Amino acid sequence: MSVWDELTGQSEAIATFRAAAEQSVGGEASRSMTHSWLITGPPGSGRSNLAYAFATALLSAGNPDGDESTRRQVEARSHPDLGVLSTERVIITIDEVRALVKSSNYSPSVASYRVMIIEDADRMRETASNVLLKALEEPPPRTVWILCAPSEADLIPTIRSRVRSVRLRVPSVGDVAELIARRSSIDLPTATQAAREAQSHIGMAHRLATNDHARRRREKTLQTALGIRSVSDAVIAAATLLELAGDDAKAITEERDAEERASALRSLGVEPGGTVPPGLRGQLKGLEEDQKRRATRSLRDGLDRIMVDLLSLYRDILLMQLGVDDELINVAILSDLIAASRASTPEQTLATMDAITTTRRRIEGNVGPALALEAMLISAIRKAHRP
């Protein structure tokens, strides 16, 4: 099976990277290959999946379709010639970039290349970006950099000028549904509904198709917004949405946090339930701080998912108000959409969508989530429609 088979809806980008992998075979060809790449595209379009597929092809000796052994090592992030920088915190720190840049200067140990991947490269501040810039200006001949970001504009101009950009498009609902059905043995109608409600975000579509909690969270989000009739309702709804985001973040991080702590204790020689010696507590404190930063990002991500769902709701309402009802996302609550479309005007719906967009920016700028949500949801007050 080819490493490219697990990707979907990106035929042009796949062709570009596969051709580059084919050209990389052999010493002479490798000298002319691009050594710095930037993969851009909307969230859920498969940026990191494509990056790791390309890495697998480059690390598989003479096989641009990737061999099975290399594929397993790349999936486990254990290949000796693969360097990865990903963060579950709000930013990528300058120390993390420095460590990866230092690693990029080593010669390949088993493959023809060293491949360095930075997921969410848009999370680097300018100081960290400048450290990376020096590595991109004069990369070692056998090192390939692959950066991932939502858009070129998310990186500083000097980095953009030194990379080859490949733009991904939003995959179709059908492509995402087919991929999920194949990967997870989910029936196609369920996969299609999940792909549509996730707006073709591959990771979120998979979660909606396979996780009851995620589906219930989304349903409650929409019903909470549809039930706002007064300012007090808006305040209560803000608290409800914040709780939903928090529960979602905990569901994602708690199990991983526990596994990391147990692994750290084992590596320190501490028995389960045993007392941590004072001299080792500093190492655990560092882990706990990293987990707190990850929790902060997870909460923000959860809030952002909620607002994306709300935007899909009011998009559907606006379409119905404009007489378009064949491109709806939330068809499962069609009767609610009809009632909501009759309870307001297109101007009111647009104002609510603008408020949601503003709130996303405010939360990204560290405005208190509760206050930002309350201000947003006041714009969603509607009188109950009476036939």
From TrEMBL:
SUPFAM superfamilies: P-loop containing nucleoside triphosphate hydrolases (SSF52540). InterPro entries: DNA_Rep/Repair_Clamp_Loader (IPR050238), P-loop_NTPase (IPR027417). It comes from the Bacteria. It holds the Pfam family DNA_pol3_delta2. Coiled coil: none annotated. GO terms for biological process: DNA-templated DNA replication. This is DNA polymerase III subunit delta. The lineage of its organism: Bacteria, Bacillati, Actinomycetota, Actinomycetes, Micrococcales.
